[in-house]
Amino acid sequence: MNESLETDALSQVGEVGLVEPKDFVSEEPFTFEDGSTIPGLTLRYETYGRLNAAGDNAIFVCHALSGDHHAAGIHSLRDRKTGWWNNIIGPGKALDTTRYFVVCSNCLGGCQGSTGPMSIDPRTGRPYGMRFPQVTIRDMVRADKRLVDHLGIRKLHAVVGGSMGGMRVLQFGIEYPDLIERMIPMATTARESAQAIAFNVVGREAIMQDPKWCGGDYAEGEGPNVGLAVARMMAHITYLSDESMARKFGRRKRVKDDTEQFEVESYLLYQGQSFINRFDANTYIYITRALDHFDLAGTYGSLESAFAPVKARTLCVAFTSDWLFPPKQNREFVLALLRAGKSASYAELEMDLGHDSFLVDAPALYDLVRDFLAN
Fold first, then answer.
1. Could you give the residue numbers annotated as active site?
2. pTM above 0.85, yes or no
3. Domain boundaries, given as residue ranges, for the chain
């Protein structure tokens, strides 16, 4: 491919262009919150932009449950999709890669190259499976700190993320107050409601009741695909809203393989099938448990006590149609930050796309983030 054609292809597919995942390997033992230890860890990550000489222009992006390290750009010119947050990361975008050094890692416990249940336990030569320690949001953040240090980052200009990523943002600010200047949690919560936990419980049961789960000891590609697909289909419903589903699908039907299906049915079946091609069932169990047990008030005694160490300025963004982590739950921890004497602001965007609103094209969100980072 000649240079002009390659440049044109990159400009159409993703402004940060071709990116290459990297692996950070730490041979230092890692101890989890529950006291369990693994002999070392690997975090797969990507970076966009350049770290300045002072090491203080970095932005750490925290992905949600089903996300990973590939947040922007493309891996090859054959890629049909860009990274999951390509609409906010790139030259001139809210996370402007001409100004900031943007980092995104696959979290500890993940299944896209980072150490997790799929990884080989060097002590046994077998995959950890359900013998992997139960990872927590705090464990993920402590692992990410190793990566931050490895990259030579002296100060994080901001930590940004939505949903589970927002939980990680809050924990980052608590855990490493002198490292972080700004926090931008979106569509998140300081602890899940009983309803949110219930959805995760049913998803885990769908996996564990699948005959091919085998107690978590399944060969790669031979696991509980039916259970995992059902878990994903059900969870995906919680990421949408009634309004967006009515507009996108309504009660319309289509014929596929001589069978009539509702369009929403076809969509969910597609979501389930595509998910099993890129995600691991045991990882789903582990990460949803991490979500369920994240409870800042319960861990620290109160939200005000939890936020006592925080030094970062905070911008929380919620979305009116998010019924998984509704605006009320976002406002709750912002008010606690203010009661604790911290600098915090709250924005509630009128969008009808549900919990996933932070992932879609949203100019109002981009303006908020851009201004907060520049202020």
1. 163, 322, 355
2. yes
3. 3-192+296-374, 193-293
